[in-house]
Design goal:
By secondary structure, this protein is mainly alpha-helical. It is built from 5 helices and 4 strands; from the N terminus they run αββαβαβαα. A two-stranded parallel sheet has the order 1-4. It has a two-stranded antiparallel ribbon with strand order 2-3. The longest helix is centred in the middle third of the chain and has 18 residues. The radius of gyration is 17 Å and the shape is globular. 22% of the residues are buried.
C-alpha cells in the first residue's frame, strides 16, 4: 500500500511516524474492518483452488471504530519504535475534524461464506499486520 494514497491505515501510520496527531473525522465512531495482504492472497488462492463460482467475501470481519483503530496504530508505532531503539519519539494525539458527507458509518464484510465454503478465515491480526506495515513505512 502506498503510504500516501490517502487511506486511513497509511495516513495514521505516516502521521504517527512523523510525530503528528492522527486525524479522525466526526468523532471517530464510524467503523471499518481491516485485512492484511497475506490473508487476502491466501483467500484468493483458496477461492481459485475451489470449484465455487459465486461471489464470496474474503475480507476480515473484525470491526474497529476509527477512534479505537487510531489508538491501536499509536500503540503499535510506539512499540516498534521502542523495539528499534528510537529515543525521544513524540507521543502523538488524535485530532478530530468534521465528518465528510460521503464517509460511510460502517464497513464490515460478512465472511460466513468463505468460512463455510472454503474453510478460510483470516489468520493475521490487525496488530500483526500493522507491525509489518510500520516497519516497512519507516
Amino acid at each position: 500500500m502506498n503510504p500516501y494514497d490517502g487511506r486511513v491505515v497509511s495516513n495514521f501510520i505516516v502521521q504517527a511516524l512523523r510525530g503528528e496527531d492522527l486525524t479522525v473525522y466526526g468523532g471517530g465512531q464510524q467503523t471499518r474492518s481491516f485485512q492484511y495482504i497475506h490473508d487476502l492472497v491466501d483467500g484468493m488462492i483458496a477461492t481459485m483452488n475451489s470449484d465455487y463460482d459465486q461471489p464470496i467475501n474474503i475480507g476480515n470481519s473484525e470491526e474497529f471504530t476509527i477512534g479505537d483503530f487510531a489508538n491501536v496504530v499509536r500503540e503499535v508505532v510506539e512499540k516498534v519504535q521502542k523495539e528499534d531503539g528510537v529515543e525521544g519519539a513524540k507521543k502523538v494525539g488524535v485530532k478530530d475534524m468534521p465528518m465528510p458527507k460521503d464517509d460511510p458509518k460502517q464497513r464490515k464484510p460478512d465472511t460466513t461464506r468463505a468460512k463455510e465454503v472454503l474453510g478460510w478465515s483470516p489468520r493475521w491480526s490487525v496488530r500483526m499486520g500493522l507491525e509489518e506495515m510500520v516497519r516497512y513505512y519507516k
